[in-house]
């Protein structure tokens, strides 16, 4: 690596065109958004914290923020519960099956989110197959309302975003040095202990990456939240949309957007710190 | 608490066949305590490992059904002969697919989405590849910062960015239009190209560049003849992902695509939100089939699954 | 090398396709496109299935119909004020017309350019835009699950229907009109909505779901998640045609309704086409088509006799129609935002 560094020039200027585009069309809009949120009204350009006061002063808004974060957290946990086994099986599978499994995992994320959410509307309804199955299995007597409930939203979010959990986990798990597992068993640890003491901690980077991606995606999943939640369940994305497009209250919508962005960033930062605490020293590739 | 073995640690047999299951922990089930003689601690592991395999296998099976099920449901529902969206459908027919042929507005929206996706992918590939070359092997602070910046659209709420873009456009005195929509899509889709291309670049042996340079090739020629063929599949995989992400994008299109520049996902969302039209199922069926076909192509030519698991 | 060649070809083909497709709109062989707004539910379907082909035959132009509630249309027009409006034809309910005119969002309707305008009943002619129909609300119920048809809105409070009542949010005219009517029945008026909200709160234990829009409402019915709810006459007919078990019944307190009208937006991009579109909706043959099931849209053209489910359920003659009660929207409009916020706060499941 040292030889390469001396032989080739540092090519960082190549990133300048894209950086210019990002600054002009990603950073600048957020700056403008921030400045808009600091206006008392659409027309007035004077600095004012009125919009933020309005947001934080009303428990309605705070409850929307809280329920959005809590929703994303729960959906992420479900993704972890089901995503980890898939990634684990994927990493252990022979090459032929691996491709097929990754294909199956990736297909949902590439199919339009509207299409996938629409499928769930058919499945989750009172007379939908979910309820038929539950009643058939004798688990419930009355049809369980799943559509337009928070449980329904969590279920659909988990399915729609699960590939985002599986892929980073799979990448990390497939890079784990199998010698470590063997060493663990050679030292007398059973399969479960090895899993919890060796595999799981070593897969933390992939797990954290997956959690970050899934959490962010679930928090901002406008289509799923509105189609399955029925828009009676108002989360931050719909709140922003309603204020921006429905009520034409751009300064307030800007404030909500900024608060939302910062909230997501805080959670991601926290997840990142957790991840950094356990370095991946099992990476042998 | 590790118990010290009283016998020498058994070595992994050399020449293990490629395709066999490699346990990440614990022994292979059923393996007799052959190498080096009998070991008392080996007898208690099979159920341990077996239970792990069963539980993980069961969870995986449920998860796979969970992942794939809805897609199949939509596909089957689209073939219903009735006007309702019940599943299983009562009667099968192609009438809703035929109805798509008359769906002028849906076709127009699909066409808009296609144009936007093609342009987005082109721009994202060009800018993204160049940027990836710049930051993949650079150690400068700028490169690190640029990396974080370019990846942030994947993590920050895309809806907030969409609205910010709309506000920004208005501040500049402009109105939503196809070119501006394309720029918005490029921002949220270029991270895909960057990720796969950077991963592909990481696999390239730096010695190749030294060799190429010492043989007299200029930077551009080195890129064309050495780098590009190696990372080509990575770029192609990223391009595919960017294309699908743009075609499917909702949060940015929600604000930057107005009534005069309608795109398919927004049109479908409106339809689902307000109608129980079975044509939605039919167009969904088309989208699913096209996605699968494109994925197979991407797998064949770009090794998609390999690129995603780097 | 194989990869290089195929990639270049792909890029080249893509660029060519993209460039070709990005030529100005006029190049597309279909001709011009008119962008209009339409309401969800029956309206969207009638407009898409009947009006768009009729319009295309008449003018050769195609139509892009954006599904939006009246309140959303106003917001979008307001946001684009001074420039190009996002659509050329707006469809509004009675409450919104006054606001739209006052804010300069819609233009006066050039009746001279509209041959079918004179055929409308005088009460439906308006300088800001002709009325295309009257919408009425009553009670919808699932005849499979509810054997005795309900007779009044008070039935929604009956414990027999616990968890099976549906409501819709106030951003739609259905929700607003229902609240206004409930309020009136319980003794309130346009100035005082407390009785109405009290009644809604009392209804909450019965409510199975509150839909924010009419599409979600329709889904609830199809999935049989609600069995009884306030509903538009038209939408019930359309759902019935889709095989959803639902019937419409006129409450004892009578029908309430409001007019719906089409308008030319200010600074419309294709004003002539827009007028032709609106005029097409006024035509006698178009309105009699729309009167048929599954749309059952009440006609406003004097040459179209009332027929079908309209005569059996709503009104036998145009004179009956004029007896249907409305509201004083000038009093309710200023409270709209406050009412919506109050609803969102108090009526939560």
Number of strands of chain B: 0
The sequence of SSEs of chain A as H and E is: HHHHHHHHHHHHHH
Main pleated-sheet profile of chain A: none
**Terminal CA distance of chain A:** 16 Å
* Principal-axes shape call of chain B: globular
SS class of chain B = mainly alpha
pLDDT averaged over residues of chain B: 81
Characterize the quaternary organization of these chains: heterotrimer
Helix content of chain A: over 70%
Straight-line distance between termini of chain B = 34 Å
CATH topology (level 3) name of the largest domain in chain B: MetI-like fold
How does the overall form of chain A come out from the CA principal axes? globular
CATH superfamily of chain A: MetI-like
Description:
The complex is a heterotrimer of chains A (285), B (310) and C (349). With 285 residues, chain A is an all-alpha fold. Chain A has one domain: MetI-like fold (Orthogonal Bundle). Chain A has 14 helices and no strands. In chain A, helix 3 packs across helix 14 (250-276) and helix 8 (150-174) runs antiparallel to helix 11 (204-219). Chain A starts with a helix and ends in a 9-residue tail after the last helix. The radius of gyration of chain B is 26 Å and the shape is globular. Chain B starts with 44 loop residues before the first helix and ends with a helix. Chain B has helices at residues 45-77, 95-100, 104-136, 141-151, 158-171, 178-202, 206-214, 219-248, 251-256, 264-274, 278-302, 304-308. Mean pLDDT of chain B is 81; it is low at 1-39. Chain C is of the alpha+beta class and 349 residues long. Chain C has helices at residues 2-21, 42-59, 70-79, 94-102, 173-185, 194-203, 214-222, 233-241, 271-282, 284-291, 309-314, 318-322, 329-332, 336-346, and strands at residues 33-38, 62-67, 89-93, 106-107, 131-141, 165-168, 207-211, 228-232, 247-249, 256-265. Chain C is globular. The interface between A and B is large, with 118 and 116 residues.
């Amino acid at each position: 690596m040292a030889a390469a560094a001396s032989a080739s020039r540092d090519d960082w200027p190549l990133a300048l065109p894209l950086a210019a585009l990002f600054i002009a069309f990603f950073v600048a809009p957020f700056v403008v958004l921030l400045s808009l949120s600091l206006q008392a009204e659409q027309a007035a350009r004077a600095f004012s914290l009125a919009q933020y006061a309005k947001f934080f002063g009303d428990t309605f808004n705070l409850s929307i923020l809280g329920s959005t974060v809590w929703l994303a957290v729960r959906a992420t946990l479900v993704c972890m519960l089901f995503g980890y086994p898939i990634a684990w099986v994927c990493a252990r599978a022979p090459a032929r099956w691996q491709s097929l499994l990754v294909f199956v995992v990736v297909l949902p994320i590439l199919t339009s989110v509207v299409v996938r959410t629409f499928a769930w509307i058919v499945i989750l309804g009172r007379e939908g197959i979910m309820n038929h199955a539950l009643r058939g299995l004798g688990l419930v007597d009355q049809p369980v309302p799943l559509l337009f409930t928070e449980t329904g939203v969590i279920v659909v979010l988990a399915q729609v975003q699960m590939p985002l959990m599986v892929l980073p986990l799979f990448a990390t798990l497939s890079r784990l040095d199998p010698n470590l597992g063997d060493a663990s068993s050679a030292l007398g640890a059973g399969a479960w202990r090895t899993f919890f003491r060796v595999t799981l901690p070593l897969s933390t980077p992939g797990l954290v990456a997956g959690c970050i991606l899934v959490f962010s995606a679930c928090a901002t999943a406008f289509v799923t939240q509105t189609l399955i939640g029925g828009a009676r369940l108002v989360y931050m994305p719909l709140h922003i949309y309603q204020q921006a497009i429905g009520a034409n209250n751009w300064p307030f919508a800007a404030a909500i957007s900024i608060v939302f962005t910062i909230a997501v960033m805080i959670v991601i930062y926290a997840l990142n710190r957790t991840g950094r605490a356990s370095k991946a020293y099992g990476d042998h590739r | 608490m590790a118990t010290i073995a009283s016998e020498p640690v058994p070595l992994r047999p050399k020449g293990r066949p490629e395709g066999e299951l490699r346990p990440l922990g614990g022994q292979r089930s059923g393996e007799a305590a052959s190498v080096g003689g009998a070991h008392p601690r080996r007898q208690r592991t099979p159920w341990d490992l077996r239970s792990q395999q069963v539980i993980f296998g069961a969870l995986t099976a449920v998860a796979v059904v969970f992942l794939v099920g809805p897609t199949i449901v939509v596909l089957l529902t689209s073939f219903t002969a009735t006007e309702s969206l019940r599943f299983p459908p009562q009667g099968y027919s192609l009438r809703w697919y035929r109805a798509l042929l008359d769906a002028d507005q849906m076709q127009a929206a699909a066409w808009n989405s296609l144009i936007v996706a093609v342009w987005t992918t082109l721009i994202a590939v060009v800018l993204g590849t160049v940027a990836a070359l710049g930051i993949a092997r650079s150690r400068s602070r700028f490169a690190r910062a640029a990396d974080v910046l370019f990846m942030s659209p994947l993590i920050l709420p895309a809806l907030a960015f969409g609205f910010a873009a709309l506000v920004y456009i208005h501040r500049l005195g402009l109105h939503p239009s196809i070119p501006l929509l394309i720029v918005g899509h490029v921002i949220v889709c270029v991270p895909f190209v960057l990720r796969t291309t950077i991963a592909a670049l990481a696999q390239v042996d730096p010695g190749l560049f030294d060799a190429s340079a010492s043989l007299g090739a200029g930077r551009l020629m080195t890129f064309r003849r050495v780098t590009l063929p190696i990372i080509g599949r990575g770029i192609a995989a990223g391009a595919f992902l960017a294309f699908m992400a743009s075609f499917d994008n909702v949060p940015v299109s929600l604000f930057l695509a107005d009534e005069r520049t309608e795109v398919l996902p927004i049109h479908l969302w409106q339809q689902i939100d307000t109608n129980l039209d079975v044509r939605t199922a039919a167009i969904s069926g088309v989208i699913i089939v096209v996605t699968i076909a494109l994925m197979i192509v991407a797998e064949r030519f770009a090794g998609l699954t390999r690129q995603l698991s780097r | 090398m194989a990869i290089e060649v195929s990639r270049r070809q792909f890029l080249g083909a893509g660029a060519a396709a993209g460039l070709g497709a990005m030529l100005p709109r006029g190049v597309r062989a279909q001709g011009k496109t008119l962008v209009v707004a339409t309401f969800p539910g029956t309206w969207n379907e009638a407009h898409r299935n009947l009006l768009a082909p009729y319009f295309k035959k008449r003018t050769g132009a195609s139509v892009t119909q954006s599904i939006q509630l009246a309140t959303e249309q106003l917001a979008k027009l307001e946001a684009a004020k001074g420039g190009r409006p996002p659509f050329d034809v707006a469809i509004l309910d009675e409450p919104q017309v006054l606001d739209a005119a006052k804010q300069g969002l819609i233009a006066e309707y050039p009746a001279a350019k509209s041959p079918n305008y004179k055929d409308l009943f005088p009460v439906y002619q308006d300088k800001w835009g002709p009325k295309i129909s009257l919408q009425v609300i009553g009670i919808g119920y699932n005849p499979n699950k509810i054997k005795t048809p309900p007779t009044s809105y008070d039935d929604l409070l009956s414990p027999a229907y616990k968890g099976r009542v549906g409501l819709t949010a106030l951003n739609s005219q259905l929700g607003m009109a229902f609240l206004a009517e409930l309020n009136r029945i319980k003794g309130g008026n346009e100035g005082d909505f407390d009785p109405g909200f009290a009644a809604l709160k009392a209804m909450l234990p019965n409510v199975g779901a509150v839909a924010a829009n009419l599409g979600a409402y329709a889904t609830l019915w199809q999935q049989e998640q609600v069995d009884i709810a306030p509903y538009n006459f038209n939408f019930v007919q359309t759902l019935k045609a889709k095989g959803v078990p639902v019937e419409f019944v006129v409450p004892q307190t009578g029908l309430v309704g409001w007019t719906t009208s089409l308008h030319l937006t200010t600074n419309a991009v294709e004003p002539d086409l827009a007028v032709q579109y609106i005029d097409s909706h006024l035509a006698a043959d178009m309105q009699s088509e729309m009167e048929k099931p599954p749309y059952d849209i009440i006609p406003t053209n004097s040459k179209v006799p009332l027929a079908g489910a309209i005569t059996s359920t709503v009104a036998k003659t145009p004179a009956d129609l004029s007896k249907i009660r409305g509201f004083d929207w000038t009093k309710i409009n200023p409270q709209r935002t406050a009412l919506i916020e109050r609803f969102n706060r108090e009526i939560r499941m």
